[in-house]
Amino acid sequence: MAVVTPDSIKTFSIGDLKGTLAVFANTLDTADTWASGIPGIFALIPVQNDSVTTQASTGVGATWSGSTVTFRLGEDNTAVNLIVLSRS
Fold it and tell me: Does the residue 14 lie in any domain?
């Protein structure tokens, strides 16, 4: 487990909602965390953004507590694009 920071962050609006796209390099491991500082998170959309070695090692998930995001990955050293939807 490590604290990670994204390589880039972009924000956008979806009606009255705020969207944040955080791009992480291929160094994420399961249980890595990101202290996003984003208030009012209500949804995370993680997308794996690299090739995996086997079908069994594909997959990415994420959970949040407050504004801290924790990643769950099928394979270590994975690149992830994370969309965070919030009411902030």
Answer: yes
How many domains are contained in the chain? 1
Domain boundaries, position 42: 8-86
pLDDT digits (tens, 9 = 90+) for 32-50: 999 999 999 999 999 998 8
pTM metric for this prediction: 0.90
**C-beta separation of 57 from 75 below 8 A:** yes
User: Is the pLDDT at 75 greater than 90, yes or no?
Assistant: no
Q: Are 58 and 67 in contact (CB under 8 A)?
A: no
Which CATH number belongs to the domain containing residue 59 in this structure? 2.60.40
Percent of the chain surpassing pLDDT 90: 74
**Residue 75 maps to a domain:** yes
How far apart, in whole angstroms, are the C-alpha atoms of residue 2 and residue 53? 23
Contact 5, 16 (CB under 8 A): no
In the structure encoding, which two tokens stand for residue 1, read together? 């487990």
